[in-house]
From TrEMBL:
Lineage: Eukaryota, Metazoa, Ecdysozoa, Nematoda, Chromadorea
Transmembrane intervals: 192-213
PANTHER family: ALPHA-1,6-MANNOSYL-GLYCOPROTEIN 4-BETA-N-ACETYLGLUCOSAMINYLTRANSFERASE-LIKE (PTHR12062:SF33), N-ACETYLGLUCOSAMINYLTRANSFERASE VI (PTHR12062)
GO MF term list: acetylglucosaminyltransferase activity
Residue ranges annotated for the MGAT4 conserved region domain, each copy included: 23-159, 200-311
Swiss-Prot/TrEMBL GO biological process terms: protein N-linked glycosylation
Protein name per its UniProtKB record: Protein LOC152586 (inferred by orthology to a human protein)
Claim: Membrane is one of the keywords in the record: yes
Keywords from the named record: Membrane, Transmembrane, Transmembrane helix
Pfam families: MGAT4_cons
Amino acid sequence: MNDSLFKAARNSYYAEPVITTDVMSLFPEFKNVSPNDLEPVPFTQRNRVRKKLVVGIPVVERAKSYITDTLTSLFSRLDEVYRSEVLFVVMFGSRQTFSGFVMNTTKEIKWKFAKEVDDGLLQIIAIPEAWYKINIEDVPPTFNDKAERMYWRTKQNIALTQTGEVLIIIGIQEIEDICPLLQQKFSRFDKIPFFAFIVFLRVVFNYVTFLGGRQWFYMDFSRMGFIGKLFRTEELKYVVHSVALYYRYKPVDWILLDIQYCRYCRPDQSMANCNKVIKGIVIGCGATQFQHVGKVSSLSGKVQNISDKYFGKGKGWSSRNNPLAKVSSTMKCKSGYEPQRGYANNNAIWFLNIAKGGRMIVTFSAPITVTGIMLLSGVPPAAQGKFGPETNVYVSLHGSDEDNKTLLGAFSLNGDFLFRSCGTRLKSIEVEVTEDLLHDVVVDHFIIDTGVHECLASNEK
């Protein structure tokens, strides 16, 4: 490695070391390593515009590189609103930081995407060589795992520690208040359908906005291992430190469970109570939005056969925890995607060929105090059709006549409806379409929030 190149690149980017010695002390291989040598090597200028979300795109050398095709498809489909909100970070993982592959690919990216780099939408960094000093081949087995299993799970833990530390540094420097998105090296970002990814960004920002006043540990957009987990910047550092602490002993998803139990559960109470508490701070975000698409990893010999059979079909694996209610509709629905099922479970509602006057009514079993309502349309499995300003949302307030409806608002042009209050006591909610749409609309992420939410009295309706 060219030490002068490393120092020149790093010194132009960071004012002072950010990697903490407590993380370094967990790895004996770092005994004679400087904190500076563990910080990402930047190949672009530091972004000067504060962003809300950072998406890491790990890149490793392979026979066919997809990164430029990935970025071309991504940026050509990215709505203007997200260009000011999101930072994409291409992260090279290579034992030779300044290898021909890294330098040539960096040059090509900077030439093809000069505007995105200049606008602060794209950064390029490399994980420094010092991280590859960690010995992952001779870790003593635990839980009767075979040597091969020990190698791969340890490698995953180290990969998370590497990329997590990188995203923490970038988050400290660049992110306003939320949320590095972790993407494992094995997850083939270059194979994700890009329209689906743009929809995913919209879903993420809606959840962040909707839950902005609530306490949460992380948002879960996938049930497959450790992908699709969304953390606030300040939370991610504790997760990464815990993974670094226990990387030799447990798989990463087990470590994450241990963190939850340690932080949120009392030893003198039952596991049922513990799980109830965790369910309130780990936000399940509906059907799987992310999963491994490529079967064959860039890591020689590694094959991933696990997948979610409902991925992209608008079907989830758990209930929504919405209050008890009867849900009916005058609009025809696709079989398996009925309103009652979509209200109670993480399952999309699929309306067919919608005409003016179509309604969906949610009648609560008893009047209930609601602090938030969210419905998102234009999502998989039929993301092209959505509700808009022609679709109104009404409520019947507790104590009012059955026919006395109050207009809360309408769906946005993007197909979203979000409502927040300090507490509004409701008997029912009604969604009404005021124009012929004559196309299908899928509604998902149907959430009725009754929890405590920080708000101003002036926001109450």
